[in-house]
Every structure is written in C-alpha cells, then in structure tokens.
Amino acid sequence: MSGWSAHDIPDQGGRTAVVTGANSGLGYVTARELARKGARVVLACRSETRGREAVRRLREEVPAAKAELRRLDLGYLASVREFADALPYDRLDLLVNNAGVMAMPYGTTADGFETQFGVNHLGHFALTGLLLPALLAAADRPAGATRVVTVSSMVHLLGNIDPDDLNSERTYRRWIAYGRTKTANLLFTHELARRLTAAGAEVVAAAAHPGYAATNLQTAGPRAEGRRVAERLMALGNRVFAQSAEAGALPALYAATAPGVRPDSFTGPSLAMWRGAPAPSRRAPWTLDDRVGERLWAASERLTGVSYEALKG
C-alpha cells in the first residue's frame, strides 16, 4: 500500500458503481476517480439540486465520465426502496456506502429512528440488502472484484453499540451516538463478510475510514443548531489539521478497487489513523464480536424490513 494514490486505481471500464452521498466531499471524490478510470457511476444523493451540480462538475473535470444522478434519502426507508427498485442495472460491481451525518442534535428520521443511527447504519443496511441480488449477479467477475465498501470512522473507538438502546433513547450524547453508528458500520461489514463467505458468494465486504479529512460533515451539526462558535472552530480545525477530501477518499478507493482486498478488512490513513496513504487500520475489538454482530443484524432486519434472503439459501 505504500504511496498508493488515485493513479494506482485499476481500470474500471465495464463496471457499474453506486456511491452514496456523492454530491460533495469524500463521496464526490470517490465517484469522480471511479469515473476517471472508466466506471459507470451512479451518484446517490439526497438533494437533487446539489446532486445535479455534482454531476455537472464531475463531467467538467472528467469529460468522458459516465455519471448519473439518482435521488436517495437514507433517512427514509421508502426512498431507499424506490432507489433500489428504479436502478436500471441488473448487475452492480461496486457499492460504496459513504453518506452519513455526524454529531447532529437529537432528532429522528422519517421512520422514527435516531437520525445518526437511521442514516449512517440502517439506511445503508437496507440499501445493501436491496441491491444484493445485483451485486451477486456481477460476482462472476474475477474473484473479489465485486465489493461492498462501507465508510466508518476512527471515532468508532469512542464506544460499542448498545443492542438494547440502538436509538439512544436512554441518553443522547451526539459524539458517542456518532461513534456507535461507526461501530455499527464495522459490525455490519464483519457480519456481512461472514455471511457472504458462508454462502460461497464472490463478493467482498470491506470497510474504510478517511482519518481526519476536511468535509462539510464537521460543520453541519453546529450549523444546524446555530452554534456559530463551534462551527468556526470546526472550520478552523479543517484548515489547520485535516487532510484534503482527495486524500481522505483514498482508503475507500483502495478498498473498492485494489487487488487482493480481503473480506472484513479495514483501511485507513497510515499515520496514526489520521492522515497519509492507505494502510491497514486499527479497529476496536468489539467490532469483531460475532455475537453482537448477529444481534445488530437481526435488529436491523426487523427495523428496516429488509431480509437478506439471497444469503439464506
């Protein structure tokens, strides 16, 4: 992995990718670099206005890009189903579960879930399950070429999930709640990888994180509450300490495209999980707990109504 960059992404011609949250930040860079290497890229975005602008900008930067916008609101399960039903491709080579919200004030999704848990985990759990038939249909590619990459965070180290309080109804601390959703992302990857292997499916489930990358995630929470001082401090931190979105997207791009990526691997920046070229990343031991992973999976199926039938045969 030493020195790996976007120039090292293998040819993606003939492949179809879905990237959630692709209108800005890490998601936009991920979509752009996949398109630059020849993939057909679906930008799955909540805001059609920002999504259209992202597609326009992407085509300016990569004139030959095959890119399209499709609306997806991960905080609304009906929207997730509509997106999956309307996707016109029977085969899907790559799903990058990138979108997310961070350290937001307490709120709930349209379906009544705590916002961070509903968007960051349940929305992506449902999306992956609904797109699984298309992913399995593309798995006749070379072994391991079809992938589900879920973007977690080094902030998962703040804490394990509480299977009896997934929606943080007992107590809500925004950063702890965010960290737990990022733990959920890793537990989901762990359990999905295990189930894919047990089913003999040639689909790799892997995870990645950007370290500290400058995106609009850091300022969205304070802005939503009108906490201007906190918003300014976050913006200052982005300028002084963070790496660019281009650098922050590299671990996910590596997990999505590099040869030999292993199931349930976790890729992040090489320097103290903070910045640098992609490398194997530290992860908390609780993200490898089979029992907790199974409990989260069962709860996620019940809460979303999405059952991974293709892996149960």
Automatic annotation (TrEMBL):
Source organism, top-level taxon: Bacteria
SUPFAM superfamilies (UniProt xref): NAD(P)-binding Rossmann-fold domains
GO terms assigned for molecular function: oxidoreductase activity
Protein name: SDR family NAD(P)-dependent oxidoreductase
Keyword Oxidoreductase: yes
NCBIfam families: PRK06197.1 (NF004846)
Gene3D superfamilies: NAD(P)-binding Rossmann-like Domain
Family affiliation: Belongs to the short-chain dehydrogenases/reductases (SDR) family.
Key words of the record: Oxidoreductase
Pfam families named among the record's database cross-references: adh_short
